[in-house]
Amino acid sequence: MSLPHAILTALLEKPSSGLELTRRFDRSIGYFWSATHQQIYRELGRLEREGLIRALPSEQPARGQRKSYEVLPAGRAELSRWTAASQDPKPLRDTLLLRLRAAAVIGTAGLEDDLRRHLQLHERQLAEYREIERRDFPPGSDSAQDRLHHLILRAGIDLETFWTRWLRHALEEFADLPDGS
Amino acid sequence: MSLPHAILTALLEKPSSGLELTRRFDRSIGYFWSATHQQIYRELGRLEREGLIRALPSEQPARGQRKSYEVLPAGRAELSRWTAASQDPKPLRDTLLLRLRAAAVIGTAGLEDDLRRHLQLHERQLAEYREIERRDFPPGSDSAQDRLHHLILRAGIDLETFWTRWLRHALEEFADLPDGS
DNA sequence: AATGCCATGTAACCGGTTACATGATTTA
DNA sequence: TAAATCATGTAACCGGTTACATGGCATT
């Protein structure tokens, strides 16, 4: 029950067509809530049927024609409700940790290479976040919006920092392990 | 495609019935791969049909009778294959960050309380992990199994540490924000 | 006219979630 | 013997994933 609210947020930031939303879900919002174009079109249909958004009247709608949407008051209200509502954090769910647990039983053969690969990926993501921070949040940014966006980015940076540190630590342990096991 | 491998790992650690597995998925393995009893029974059925596990021949099977399972060689082979196979990390997906992004557009009203609640929950989880570390991994633990299990636990501890720090930082920012927005 | 890309969709599947059902065993 | 609990399941749903379809537009 989060995709509709992700879309409402994106449309409030800027009214968009399905494809534009899809592009934006490959960046910014997509960094912590990804979605494919199929999901997005399906959800846009639902939100319109429920009266939370509407197609901008400018253009005639047809297959292969751009349709832009904007948020209606009911949509804004629903987003406010959802944002303020108490929600439990989702329990951790991570296959890499699961594979380590399996390796403790059947041996670590083949795992080390993928740990190194993950380290690289996380380092790359961390560098990308840091570049965004440098570009979009120079020291002394001010508005409430900026501060909140920066806070979100900080979570991404700190998370990737955790992973890179932990993976380096894991690789050290591996180097130290009795061979093959 | 991870639940079957979580179950294979658990069964290799110790042959178990469905209910015993369910209990163990509330602790240990469940800390990073949770599962309900419905999932577990469905998956046990599949794994048995596919010849990766078998019911221990000791007892007659009947509804309401315990059935214990053990892993067959084919199951162990599949777990080895899966563990060594290269897998991409899943992109981050977090509703709390999404709610912050929404709050940047519609205002932060009501969010602060839930941030405080999340902070408490993460502090509690962190304390639980630390207690496990104190109990199960006294300084100078040695076997490869222990080192791997400790490594996994460390990931949990570091992740919860990240969340508690970040949430405290977020609450400071909130205290500093122009009122109501 | 054919090719390829842009834009919007439909359909089938799959794993996780929630609600409910049923048989066996223990306890009041 | 009724109620509670243990143990194993079935069924319906829901969101995310993958594969495929279709109409319009631009280029060659």
TrEMBL record, chains A, B:
Domain (Transcription regulator PadR C-terminal): residue spans on this chain: 92-173
Coiled-coil regions listed: none
Transmembrane segments: none
Domain Transcription regulator PadR N-terminal: start-end pairs: 7-80
InterPro entries linked to this entry: Tscrpt_reg_PadR_C, Tscrpt_reg_PadR_N, WH-like_DNA-bd_sf, WH_DNA-bd_sf
Short name of one Pfam family: PadR
Domain of life: Bacteria
Annotated PANTHER family: TRANSCRIPTIONAL REGULATOR YQJI (PTHR43252), TRANSCRIPTIONAL REGULATORY PROTEIN (PTHR43252:SF4)
Protein name as catalogued: PadR family transcriptional regulator
